[in-house]
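REQUEST FORM: STRUCTURE PREDICTION
Request ID: SP-0412
Submitted by: Lab K.M.
Chain count: 1
Length (residues): 258
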Amino acid sequence: MNNSTLHSAHNITLTTIGEIVSPYQEKFAIPRQPGIVSAAKGQIVLLADANNQDLVRGLEQFSHLWLIFVFHGTKEQGWKPLVRPPRLGGNKKVGVLATRSTFRPNPIGMSVVKLDGIRQEKRADGTQQTIIDISGLDLLNGTPILDIKPYVPYCDSIDDANAGFAQTEPSDNLVVNFCDEVEQVINNQQHQFPDLKKLITQVLAQDPRPAYKQNKCDQKVYGMSLYHFNIQWQMTSLTELSVINIENISELMPEKNQ
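STATUS: Completed
RESULT:
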């Protein structure tokens, strides 16, 4: 292919067909791959012309979905030809196309998620809203969805595939402990968020700190947002951490005037 052919390529306009509702309110602490945090539950809310139950007819036959989405939280930062994968300790640079970095020529990502159900909800204006319930997601709240495809095991899973530096799943999970005050707050949220403790545990067990800090014990207090909770934790050893505080952010916000 010559340069003139490359330069004649046309721009492509894509339409968002849905939006993600996710417990992850910020990029920090989102799992680096889907499926690692099974307790992460969310929804795909179909939008505009895609909000049509005919689009999802037959989709319930599949257990998992491919989601094609936009890295909307980082796209304004542009892209880099070389990046530092966390799996290499953040110390070695490789080409961005050899990674799943968010900083890509086009800010497009893909994830496999578990399909938990498809339902219709009546909206305030009387129309129906199509919602797809999913779990195991690794997507920021509000992520725009470009496409949804069924996961087909016989062709999407290749037993003898080679994944280079990411061949195996990380296995050195941290032990996550909770102080008594945090346990009480979580217990008080059982009705609305029955899997909150499991979600926090699975997220923190992966050590969401920057790659260069992993396998190190520091004294810094870290924080993350899940749903409307601000959660703080601190390393207590090389293999353990303690969740030391949890605040319900919605209760701290001033009420709007009626």
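NOTES: The CA atoms of residues 174 and 239 lie 5 Å apart.
Reviewed by: T.R.
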